[in-house]
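Hey team,

Filing this mostly as a record. A colleague (T.K.) asked me to run one chain through the structure pipeline before their review meeting, and I want the input and output archived in the tracker in case anyone asks later how it was produced. No errors, nothing strange. Just documentation.

Input sequence:
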Amino acid sequence: MEITVSGLYLSGGGDKEQTKEIDRMFAGELDGGKSLLYLPIAMNPDAISYEECYKWIQDVFDPFGVRDIIMWEDLREKTLDDLMAFSDVYIGGGNTFRLMHDILQNDFHTKLIRFIDEGGSIYGGSAGAIIAGSNIGTCLHMDENQAGLKTLKGLCLMDDFAIWCHYEEENDHLIRSFIKSYDKPVIALSEETGLYIKSGSIVVLGAKPAIVFDDDSKKTIEPGGII
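Output structure:
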């Protein structure tokens, strides 16, 4: 497969200790002259407030010296110029359908793709990672489509790969069913696994391997390995 994007980080979710090494690598690439943009919009603020989300992102990146973080709670009226004021974007977890709905409703997918084409870096955690794939149906076992999203198409930043987050071995039969239904290969990430995509290569990060499913095959790629 041909991966054309560069500067993309994905993680399978989890707490800040589980994603520490992935977060550290991302923090090392931040441009000190620009703020980090944080998008918590996959979260329902009635359940977890955006103030709590902002405190969480500060706790994640403070150990790495990243303190200049701007949070957008709403994508309405956000322009490409607004986005290009940042060097990096962190898209947090929550409900994948809610996240993708908001992005599509505000034509923000075109802005994100332009942003990464222009050299910006994007970090997607959990739901933020799933939308980077070809098909977000990988979240159907855990997320409700309360947003009424009409499509399962993702941003397709990973060519044909779909991304499965919070992976456990018990998910294998669900992944097989997904592949049978949608004919998409899957990269499954546990809560201690991430990916770094640069110059067409997909490198496994974190403490646990990534699992690649395609048709009847299942391959384990250890951290540091290339998919």
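Quick notes for T.K.: The first strand starts at residue 8 and ends at 11. The mean pLDDT is 94.
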